[in-house]
Write a structure and sequence with these properties.
By secondary structure, the chain is mainly α. The chain has one domain (19-109): Helix Hairpins. Helices cover 87% and strands 0% of the residues. It has four helices and no strands. It has helices spanning 2-20, 22-41, 45-75, 81-109. Helix 2 (22-41) packs antiparallel against helix 3 and helix 3 (45-75) runs antiparallel to helix 4. The chain is globular.
């Protein structure tokens, strides 16, 4: 049981660390803005499900991207084409998730999901 507790402590520590990262803080600011807008706009249950899912996907991708970038920096801080490729691929994941979130947001605004 103590081992399980330690795992949860480590996981929560990871969440706290993530919230201190500038890239993730930017995503959290956008998330709060979207949540405020959704509240003002009067989203229905299905729309909230889509919005919250998009927020989680983007933040999760940003957390994984940050972890990959930090790991790559531990391996080599010099310019390395292989590490650049890994970092670019990871950043592309965040960009793709963000595009997905924007598409869903536009569909909700246009009433497609209503």
């Amino acid at each position: 049981m103590a081992s399980l507790f330690k795992k949860f402590v480590a996981a929560f520590s990871g969440l706290v660390s993530a919230c201190k990262d500038k890239s993730i803080q930017i995503q959290l600011v956008f998330a709060v803005c979207v949540l405020i807008f959704g509240w003002i706009y009067g989203l229905n249950g299905e729309e909230w499900l889509w919005i919250i899912s998009c927020i989680f996907i983007v933040i999760l991708c940003e957390m994984v991207n940050t972890a990959i970038e930090r790991l790559c920096d531990l391996v080599d801080l010099r310019i390395n084409p292989k590490i650049k490729y890994i970092k670019d691929l990871s950043a592309g994941c965040v960009l793709l998730a963000s595009f997905y979130a924007v598409v869903i947001g536009c569909m909700i605004l246009k009433g497609v999901l209503r």
